[in-house]
Design goal:
By secondary structure, this protein is of the alpha+beta class. It contains 7 helices and 11 strands. The protein starts with a strand and ends with a helix.
Length: 222
C-alpha cells in the first residue's frame, strides 16, 4: 500500500512499503522531513519531470557496504599507487551534486532535479550531507589547476552514511571516491554505507543485502 502524506511531519511504518519498496507519496523535501526519513531508512526517489510530489521508498532488504569490507581490486590498488588523483571531503559539495545531476539529466526518469539539489545542498549547509571529491592535477599545496573528475555525496547521520549519487569523468572515478569514503569511515569508526539500491558496480566493491530489521539496529545505534 502506498500512503498519501500531508503537511504534517510523519511517515507510515516503513514495513508497510509495497514489494518494490514504495511507501508514500507527497509531503515535501524540508530538512526536518528528510532527516526523519533517513532515520527510518526512507529516501525520496522520483522522476522530477513526471511527478508533482516526492515519492518515498524503503526497500525491505537493504544493500549496504560495511566500511571494513570494502573490496579493492588489484587494478584499483595499482591505480591508487600511481597517486594520479587526490581526494577531499566537503571541498566542493555543489560541484559534486551538479555533476551527478548533469550526467543523467536528459535520461528518462532522471530524479536529480533542481528541487533535490536545493534540498540536499541545504542539508549539507546544516552539516547533514557530505561529499567526497576526486581531483586530477593540482600537485602543489593549493591544488592549483586541479580538475574535479569524480565524486559522490550522501546524507551523514551519526556513524552512518546514506549514499545518494556518484559520478565519474575518468575511468573508475566513482570507485575511487567510494574507496576513499570507506577508508575515511574506517578511521572514524563509521558503521555502514547505505547504497539504497543494488548495482553490479557496488556489489563488486563489497555490497551485500541485509534485512531491514538488521539495518535499523545498525542505524539506530549510530
Amino acid at each position: 500500500m502506498v500512503y498519501q502524506l500531508d503537511d504534517d511531519l510523519w511517515f507510515p511504518d516503513p514495513r508497510l512499503a509495497d514489494e518494490d519498496g514504495c511507501l508514500a507519496v507527497g509531503g515535501d523535501l524540508s530538512i526536518d522531513r528528510l532527516l526523519l526519513a533517513y532515520q527510518h531508512g526512507i529516501f525520496p526517489w522520483f522522476s522530477f519531470r513526471d511527478n508533482k510530489e516526492p515519492v518515498w521508498y524503503c526497500p525491505h532488504e537493504r544493500f549496504v557496504i560495511f566500511p571494513n569490507e570494502i573490496h579493492i581490486s588489484h587494478s584499483m590498488r595499482t591505480l591508487l599507487n600511481k597517486k594520479k588523483y587526490t581526494f577531499t571531503l566537503n571541498e566542493d559539495f555543489e560541484g559534486v551534486i551538479h555533476n551527478c545531476s548533469k550526467l543523467r539529466y536528459e535520461e528518462e526518469g532522471a530524479w536529480l532535479g533542481e528541487d533535490i539539489i536545493k534540498a540536499y545542498t541545504e542539508l549539507h549547509r546544516q552539516g547533514f550531507a557530505a561529499s567526497v571529491e576526486v581531483w586530477e592535477g593540482g600537485e602543489d599545496d593549493n591544488h592549483n589547476g586541479k580538475r574535479l573528475v569524480g565524486g559522490l555525496y550522501g546524507v551523514n547521520i551519526g556513524s552512518a552514511f546514506f549514499g545518494e549519487s556518484m559520478f565519474s569523468l575518468v575511468p573508475s572515478g566513482s570507485k575511487l571516491a567510494l574507496i576513499h569514503l570507506a577508508k575515511t569511515m574506517q578511521e572514524l569508526n563509521g558503521s555502514i554505507i547505505d547504497c539504497q539500491l543494488k548495482t553490479a558496480h557496488l556489489e563488486s566493491m563489497g555490497g551485500r543485502y541485509i534485512s531491514y530489521d538488521e539495518y535499523m539496529k545498525l542505524i539506530s545505534s549510530c
